[in-house]
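Fold it.
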Amino acid sequence: MPQHSIAKIAYYKKYLTTYLSIIERTNYVKKIYLYDFFAGEGKDINGQECSSIAALNCVKQHFANANAKIDVAIHFNDSGISVVEEGILKINRVEKIANSINLPKHIQLTFTNSPFNEIAPKIIAKLNTLKNDHKAFCFIDPWGYKEIKPSLLKQFLRNGNTELLLFMPICFMHRFVGKVYKAGPQEFPGGEELQKFLNELYKNDLPNIKNQTDFIQDITKQFKHYLKMNYILEIFIEKEKGQYFALFFFSNHKKGFHKMLEAKWALDEKEGKGFRLKSAPELFPNTDYEDYYDKLLKQLQIQAIMSNQELYDFGLANNHLPKHTNKVLKQLTAQNLIQRISNDGLNVNGYYIDDNHERKITIALTQ
């Protein structure tokens, strides 16, 4: 398994661990459904866990570390033939490995070997019947991009109780996207499927294909517009220098988005963007991302004043955590550029950057 695949699974595990912990503490969710539509081999030839078994062990560990009461229904699907064990299906291999793991009674397993285009409508129908105290998480990691349609993602997320993690081979898509508009989709394999994806997502607009990092961020922007969702996060995974894959995380809930953002920063403490090769000096050597300090100061200059809630939301919208916003505010305070105003007449000792914090304060420019 290559390093970028290991990184992909690391993000999945990190978020899933946090997700289970949060859901457990809500006290109102009774059941979680986890779907992995391309479950893989279970383990590679060297014993490295693929997404399915990695997720299963995350769930098992959660029940070992917590007084967990929530039921978890896990559905693994893969229609491929194993390349590790000759003569069996991938899902048979996943099932064999899964059945060797001693699991708590709270975990229910289902295994299927259906093509994605056949099983997706069935799962969507099930998701649309979820009770209010049931939640779902879908991991979609296809080989290529022909199965992925923006309209299908919209159907997965329509119920409001589902979060989704999607893997896309950006480097391959970027290589051919220019040809779709210039030479036509018939000129290369997969061209028609790529054109369908782009036409549906962008309609009459053209994607930004200046480089792969711009392309990834532009897709995120279009997903937000197409799906009418604010909580969509991209995670860059460097395949080789200058070549990227990407994970896209979709959530209907601010809390879920915040926690995935924490997982992203935990695995990339320097830039909070994603996995990069150790040999690469920077994740984005040829891009001009604004520093978060400059972004936040500019927003304060536009608005003149911002509440602590607005500052929290601005941070999430720019893929930064409350601790990053706090750091910038401390700098601005030290430079006498801002002042803190109490809304309740009490002393203000911090910035209280959190969602619906009980303290309500205002940050205002001093000039």
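The chain has twelve helices and eleven strands.
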